[in-house]
Write a structure and sequence with these properties.
The chain is an alpha/beta fold. The chain is 55% helix and 10% strand. The protein folds into two domains: 168 residues, 2-Layer Sandwich (Beta Polymerase, domain 2); 119 residues, no CATH class. Helix 1 crosses helix 2, helix 5 runs parallel beside helix 6 and helix 10 runs antiparallel to helix 11.
Length: 360
């Protein structure tokens, strides 16, 4: 069906202003990316699009009577920000509010429009303009006048919306009741999953903060040994004094490497709490230093890894427990993988340990 004269005028206006919309799109995308990066916010997706002439024509054929001018069509340019979690939508919306001028009268929070007897996934829609503080180009003043839409939704909300679209769920074709019921059940599962993902993430975050607080307070016996607690313990640099002392044997530079590879070693050694690891440090530091004297004296090494402190602590503990060379081979295999060199290294260290009476 051909468009009437009024709709043709709107289409002509669209063609004239298409370069402006493209410019706004570039400004919008660049500033959104910059702001997300500055705030260290990771999103599942960031999309922008300008409605095609074909799509606009179809819209005018159906609803052209509703629009006086092109400016009444607020979704010519659209952006969509997809978050991983539903509670991040509000964080993103606050960011958007600070960046752009919001047309509150035409913005819609569709999350609050769900009927009580229906499940559904909706987005938060803001109608925006580019403020002059972001871009002020006298040669193209329409940049600050034309409106655009920003949609914000979670990844699961996005999945639901795409499923509805692909299956024609919102078309004029009446969907049989049994299919509507199945769609509602699926939507309910997605809604519950979205809520639970956000809740679980919050609980994990709270747990990690509590662990960090316990570790920082020195209540080590109350803190179970796991990957998170060990990482928090390592951030306190508990082995710095021993590592510095070992480095001074050769007046060497201390290389600050990670202690995390030793987590599994400590578990296999029977450590249950961070308190156990702390006692390992306190009770065996002097023997670990004496072993380092034998290892480094006369080598001329001028770079020593920070982790050598924990490695020697583990060696001392293993030998004190009577596991001999076989225990050292297992430790080196856990750290470096299976290798014939592990046995040679274990044998050498075992002989050195005899000199300081770690083994009989």
């Amino acid at each position: 069906m051909p468009l009437d004269m009024h709709c043709e005028m709107i289409l002509d206006e669209y063609r004239d202003k298409l370069p402006v919309f493209n410019r706004i799109k570039d400004i919008l995308l660049a500033n959104l990316r910059k702001s997300l990066d500055e705030k260290n916010i990771i999103v599942a997706g960031l999309e922008t699009r300008i409605k095609t002439e074909k799509s606009l024509t179809g819209k005018l054929e159906l609803k052209g009577y509703k629009y006086r001018t092109l400016d009444d069509i607020t979704d010519i340019l659209g952006a969509r920000i997809i978050t991983f979690f539903s509670d991040e939508v509000d964080i993103i919306s606050a960011l958007v509010e600070r960046m752009f001028e919001i047309d509150w009268e035409n913005s819609v929070d569709k999350r609050k429009m769900l009927e009580i007897d229906r499940f559904g996934y909706m987005s938060l829609h803001y109608i925006c303009r580019i403020p002059k503080s972001m871009c002020d180009d006298p040669a193209m003043p329409e940049i600050n006048q034309l409106r655009f839409e920003i949609q914000m939704r979670s990844a699961l909300q996005h999945v639901w919306a795409n499923m509805q679209h692909d299956m024609g769920y919102k078309s004029d074709v009446e969907i049989p009741v049994e299919y509507q019921r199945n769609m509602s059940r699926l939507a309910g599962m997605l809604e519950l999953a979205d809520e639970q993902f956000s809740r679980i993430r919050k609980e994990i975050t709270d747990y990690r903060r509590n662990v960090q607080s316990l570790v920082a307070s020195g209540n080590f016996d109350e803190v179970p040994l796991n990957g998170d607690t060990f990482r928090s313990y390592c951030e306190l640099k508990p082995l710095q004094r021993l590592a510095d002392k070992i480095a001074t044997i050769n007046q060497a530079e201390l290389y600050d490497d990670s202690l995390m590879p030793y987590y599994n070693v400590l578990v296999h050694m029977g450590m249950k709490t961070i308190g156990d690891v702390e006692r390992l440090r306190i009770e065996n530091s002097e023997a670990a230093y004496q072993l380092a004297l034998l290892q480094l004296a006369g080598t001329g090494l001028d770079i020593v890894a920070y982790s050598v402190a924990l490695q020697n602590l583990c060696i001392v503990y293993i030998l004190k427990q009577g596991f001999s060379e076989a225990g050292l081979v297992r430790m080196f295999a856990a750290l470096y993988g299976e290798s014939a060199y592990n046995a040679q290294r274990a044998s050498r260290i075992y002989q050195q340990a005899k000199k300081i009476n770690l083994v009989s």
